NAD(P)-dependent oxidoreductase
Amino acid sequence: MTTILITGAAGLVGGMLRSRLARQGRTLRLVDVRPITPVGPAEACFVLDICGVDALAEVCDGVNAVVHLAGIATEGTWEDIARVNIDGTRAALEAARRAAVTRVALASSNHAVGFHTRPADGSDLPAGCPHRPDTYYGVSKATMEALGSLYADRYGMDVAALRIGSCFPEPSDVRGLGTWLSPDDCGRLVEAVLGAPAGFGYRQVWGVSANTRRWWSLAEGRALGYEPHDDAEQFAAGIPADLPGPDYANDPVLSRVGGAFCDFPLGEPG
Ligand code: 15L
């Protein structure tokens, strides 16, 4: 893959991915509403509204894959979420299609399925579990997945929806010890999607590291070639709330996929 377009490249995950997707002979096209400076020698920045399909399709010309990260990253008003996250995802997929780009990675979120709880038998929650969004934000990610499935079925595109957990430099709380996606594993996951053999259609995978306390399945990611290396447990000693021992079955934050998002007031920007 020699030319990759990243939408929302000025955001947190975009910033972590740029260096991790850099390869000899590869160019990154960085799209955002905010200008990005500085850019590297193998990067080009395009300041665009994510809902502008025509301009986006022009920037997609000659691209091998789109990594769609653009969007509001937490709860917001319905109007904002609908425009930026839902219209924006439709625009990214439609622009890719018009430019004959056949591979797209979508930054979905655990909040598309936030009301699922830990399986009582201790098994991993599959990435194919039905939508149970916890917020308007979660609805936008469920819709993102539906749009990805639509474009894969209609146009034969390969679209992977990455149900990202907590992608930060380090986990910050007990929940994060299970839900963390390390920046390096995030790079590995996207690279796996870019390198998977053509024709995989639509896939949903969890974006999570090989955490000791993980309870989301890695099977679907591994089937695409993702092999995580990191484990949040290395940070456990620095997380004080880990004492005297978390109640994973009953604590409302720890027992549900979406944690505290399940109790966020709907439509109130976080
Ligand atoms: C998300 O989808 C958010 O974008 C991120 O900020 C975190 O809150 C994360 O989920 C999480 O669940 O930890």
Remarks:
- The chain has a mean pLDDT of 97.
- The beta strands are 3-7, 27-32, 43-47, 65-68, 103-109, 158-164, 202-207.
